[in-house]
What we know:
The structure holds two protein chains of two kinds.
Chain A: H1 7-26, H2 31-38, H3 48-52, H4 55-59, E1 61-64, E2 68-69, H5 75-90, E3 95-98, E4 104-105, H6 107-118, E5 129-131, H7 139-146, E6 154-155, E7 167-174, H8 179-194, H9 201-217, E8 228-235, E9 240-247, H10 252-256, H11 259-266, H12 273-282, H13 297-307, E10 311-324, E11 329-346
Parallel strand pairs in A: 1-3, 2-4, 3-5, 5-6
Antiparallel strand pairs in A: 7-8, 8-9, 9-11, 10-11
Chain B: E1 2-5, H1 6-10, H2 26-43, E2 48-51, H3 60-73, H4 76-82, E3 83-86, H5 92-110
Parallel strand pairs in B: 1-2, 2-3
Amino acid sequence: MNLHKSVKWRRHSQQRSRREAKKRAAFSGSAKTRSKRLHPKLPKRFSYGELSQPPAQRQQIRLVAPVHFSLFQNFEETNNFLENMRTFLSDGREINLDLSKVEQLSLETVLALLVVVTEPVDGRRVPRVDGNLPLQNGPARQLLIASGFFDHVNPSFFIKQDKSFGGSIAHEKGFLVDADLADRLTAEAVETVFGRPMNRKGIYVTLLELMANTRQHAVPARPQAKRWWTLLFRDDRSKKAQFVFLDTGVGILDSVRTKFEKFIAKLPFIDNQPRILQEIMNGSFRTRTGLSYRGKGLPVIRQYLADRKHFANLKIITNNVMADVSSNSYVALSSRFPGTLFFWELQ
Amino acid sequence: MIRISIKEDFSRVPGHRSREDGPASGEEFLDEILRPRFSDALKNNEKLLIDLDGVAGYATSFLEAAFGGLAREEDASVILKITDFKSDEEPYLVDEIRQYINEAGQRKLARPPELV
């Protein structure tokens, strides 16, 4: 065996070059700078313990996830947590997600988390994200593992697949309207719920319309500037299929408003945003293009929901509004959601 | 009679409005299938039957881009006269398509003539 290729030799060689570099550094410069270098006065804000840690750990920000980690059930806390993640990651900071206290985790939050930890910010790579699991061995823990979340987050434990989990999660992303994907996902969902092929035109068209909306309107001046994400959860035991669709564009309301309308909407005494979303879904709102045949996508989705009994529980969060379209409930939120989120299920 | 089956002649998974949106768009269907076959039917004085069944579903924009698009180029009343639609799976689509053709025709008539 070649001595110079062995691990032992390489380690020895590295240690020797480090030693030599230290010596060279210690004896360079004036006597004063040498002294400062060899006997540094540490700033008070650092403890010796912190300085002894590697730089990556020193910079990590620890974020504790809410107990009820759900955008639909606990919007303010969950949205704040996700916003903090985005802010630190876009600043290039590494983060450590403490999910140990999470008791309830919803599907839309799983997708939102996946987007934050994988979507590059301003074309830059996402900094390192570490994370742990909910302490309770329940659906929240199973959902996180099954979603592939830890393919993007460094786990602080050994991941063991839970065989008692009867569901499966698939998530996809794209820029264009992907009819083949919509067909595949809807076929899988129908197979799970009904056990045989069925008419699935309602959910197929819903996916197409949402993909098209992201491509055309997520950033109005720049088509295809934002990616869409979709997630399908299939539970074979309870015969249930749930879809989540998310984009991080300007949101439905901001995409249809002019600059003046956006200004008016920000005034504290104006609270017409839920009404505008309701009008958009009902098809009575005039679109930005001004063309009568445009803006039919969202009303068509609502119509499918009304017409087809197996297409149920459609919910939306966009800008400052949360809507439960199935029960015709549209409410204003106190903070802004960056993008558009849809959830629906097949029953 | 000239027949178009969207499933057999074009795609089982029709997409959205324009080619930029993605594959199998309404614009692509108009260019590749609908316009040439409509021209043949017109030239040979035949009927054109369009079979809408057997596909995964239609986005409204696909139908508008294809049939509204044809009506923006040709006479809407002629399109409606020589074209028949078959949609056993979603019968309401026939009325929807006729509406797109009518609306596109009316908008074309309402537009002022271009200045030369």
